[in-house]
Amino acid sequence: MCLAIPMKVIKINGNEAIAEVGGAEYRANLTILPDIKIGEYIIVHAGFAIERLDEESALETLQIWQDIAEFDQEKQIRKSNQ
Amino acid sequence: MLKYIDEFRNPDLVKSVVSEIHREFSGNSIKLMEVCGGHTITIFKYGIQKLLPDDIHLISGPGCPVCVTDIGYIDKVIALAHIENVIIASFGDMIRVPGSRSSLQKEKGCGIDIRICYSPMDAVHIAEKNQDKEIVFLGIGFETTAPAVAASVTFATDNGINNYSVLSAHKTMPQAMKVLLDSGEIDINGFICPGHVSAITGVHIYDFITNEYRIPCVISGFEPLDMLESILMILRQLNTGNATVENQYLRSVRENGNIHAAKLMMEVFEPVDTEWRGIGTIPGSGLGIRQKYRSFDANWKFNIEIEPAREYTGCICGDIMRGVKTPTDCGLFAKICHPEDPKGSCMVSDEGTCATWYKYSTRD
Amino acid sequence: MKSNDHITLAHGSGGLQTHRLIRELFLEYFGNEFLNPLEDGAILQTNSDKLVFTTDSHVVKPLFYPGGDIGKLAISGTVNDLAVCGAIPRWISCGMIIEEGFAISDLEKIVISMKQTADLADVQIVTGDTKVVEKGNADGIYINTAGIGTLIEGVDLGTHQIRIGDSVIINGYIGDHGAAIIQAREEFPVSFEIDSDCRPLNKETIALLSKLDGIRIMRDPTRGGVATTLNEFVSGKMFGIQINENHLPIRPVVQGLCEPLGFDPLNLANEGKILIIIDPNEAQGALEILRSFPEDVHSSTIGQVVAEPAGKVILKTSIGSSRIIDMLSGEMLPRIC
Q: Domain range holding A44?
């Protein structure tokens, strides 16, 4: 139910991270997600980091569909060449 | 390019998932319910329903925390706002919700002090800067938001910011899903489960749905690719006769959630019975502030008396939020009730069903 | 007049202090043959040109923001209202309502900004008025500017000219002004680099109208954003507009601002943009003319006029589906969900 966006941590000042999305830098409170490192991606909701984004998982999901999309496109090309 | 956002809006990938959905779909009419305002918005913003086979129906449930806040709460807030030296701090969309007689926005012109906050910490900082005032933060939201509000309470406690309090209308999701299922009003064939709630709670809060009701549940992210993949996963379960909880939103949801956040939430809050607008009281579905933190509980701090609450005649927000009716079934929709002058809560919040239909869909 | 002085009620009383303010500040920067005599009105001469007359009041907060200020806005806004009607902007009036206690150094900054913008737009400030109100009113300063322009011969723009199949063009990135104001207000815990796009656009409109015949209508999408202006074009009409989400020029930083707050760039204000509806055969020509201006290099065709659905604006989404684009309703409020 909640508007929360992945952002990249670029700075940490104590209990607050500066995280960036598209070049806009947001302050994110780390109280409920301590142990974050610079360079990690966090999901930010209402000014708080609520979870870290698992980049490997993200890329896996995208890769699966990337492969299927390429296969579909090749099929289309073969079909239209017949 | 917004990383880990735009890639999940890639039209080529979306096309492939949509093809798979059409291939996988058996043809029997099915209803899939989402219970998250964020999902409602994605569906309408990206025209997801139009991409699906005609007989897959996406139904919006009571997933908009602003919309399910009971009218009495709004009336209470307005009464609080009129107490001298009180500043009301709130997330944006609360201020337009109509109560029995008025809304915060309408009352703004009468000299009350309302501050819009992006984060509950904004409200705490307002309290720090205004020592002679009482700041009341409107605690709205499900499990995604409650830990953040809990953090604001513990911060205020640790730093002696005693002029801060929270008027909680926080709610938890699973009990409402059970009530909907038990009501038998609509046949839900699958649940698209809220991704960010699950990021906090973990995946097992939906186990009872698959175990007791044999209905597939897929935890979904919020981009079009996520929702379409989740729909595909539900279809696959239905076709194989399965009913399990699956996690599509692997990149953000861990099996056991954010334990730290959940712990903090339960440190400050405890389950209470609470009223859901349009549904009624659901036992144990609300979050009330614990005795330990009661000096930060606006309910305890202020003695607020209000007249009995009443809905606008003809408003069927309740039926809409239970997925039983749609906005076009409502006689007020787009005629008397529209975003500039909402009569019911689902027209107010941007992710309320009526507001979303009004904004993104045809009104005919 | 020392620049560390402040405006007092006496400055608005019409007496000695008012005259000093006018002479030492307004005439110092705005001075011209029409204004200098300080008559009650300016006598202006035209040929038999049709006149275009407009007015706008400027109450922007904060007064100074990245890329502009209320002065630049006051001149640009009125110049642009004339320009999009197909007029050559000529003369501006300026009514100021100033709060008691306002710093004269700030007033001077605003006046200089107005003069610079007026010079850029080739317009003169020919008459004005100054009032001072008690402390607590006017948020510092409110400015009203009215403007007169002469209609370019043969030009007849309006929604009555729009035809199905016409192209919809915008001259660059959307939402920059709205984003700059959000940044300047510091209401959200976000910071980013952006300048308002606020500037006069009459050079562009004159260039377009002098070379092309097929412009149907132009409008600057200010408050309410592109979404609101597009809806104004089609409201109650027998045609609609379809916009292609993939062709909307939006800066990544504006997207980065909007996504976490739940804002839509289509609803953010623009003060240096024109929406143009044009004969599709001239769309390419219009883009070339616009792109010859350095600030308009990102001009794009963003959509077209369609038969169905009539009276509505449709967005073809980036994933190939579609949805309605509505006007902005109420204020933009950040959402949590």
A: 5-81
Residue type, B83: I
Q: What is the DSSP letter of B69?
A: B
Q: Is B82 on the interface with A (CB under 8 A)?
A: no
Locus of tokens 């400015």: C143
Query: pLDDT band for position B24 (50/70/90)?
Result: very high
Q: Are strands C215-219 and C275-278 parallel, antiparallel or unpaired?
A: antiparallel
| Cα angle value B57/B37/C191 (rounded, 5°) | 140
Q: Do B145 and C336 touch (CB under 8 A)?
A: yes
Q: What is the ipTM of this complex?
A: 0.94
Is residue C223 pLDDT above 60, yes or no?
yes
In C, residues 62-81, which contact A (CB 8 Å cutoff)?
none
Q: At what angle do helices C202-211 and C70-83 cross, to 10 degrees?
A: 10
Interchain contact, C252 vs A22, CB within 8 Å: yes
Chain B residues with CB-CB distance to A14 below 8 A: none
More confident residue, C94 or B311: C94
DSSP strand pairing (C87-99 vs C141-151): antiparallel
Q: What CATH number corresponds to the domain at position A77?
A: 2.30.30.140
Encode pLDDT of B234-284 as tens digits.
999 999 999 999 999 999 999 999 999 999 999 999 999 999 987 889 999
Radius of gyration of chain A measured on its C-alpha atoms: 18
CB pairs under 8 A between B and C: 94
Domains and CATH numbers, chain C: 9-151 (3.30.1330.10), 159-325 (3.90.650.10)
Q: Which of C189, C193, C337 sits opposite A3 (nearest CB)?
A: C337
- Identify all chain B residues contacting C317, using CB atoms and an 8 Å cutoff: 45-47
Measured at the CA of A24, the angle between CA A18 and CA A27, to 5 degrees, comes to 25
Give C265's contacts in chain B (Cβ within 8 Å): none
What is the total count of domains within chain A? Answer: 1
Let me know the angle formed at the C-alpha of A16 by A13 and A18, rounded to the nearest 5 degrees. 80
Q: Quote the pTM value.
A: 0.92
Subunits next to A (3 or more Cβ pairs <8 Å) are B, C
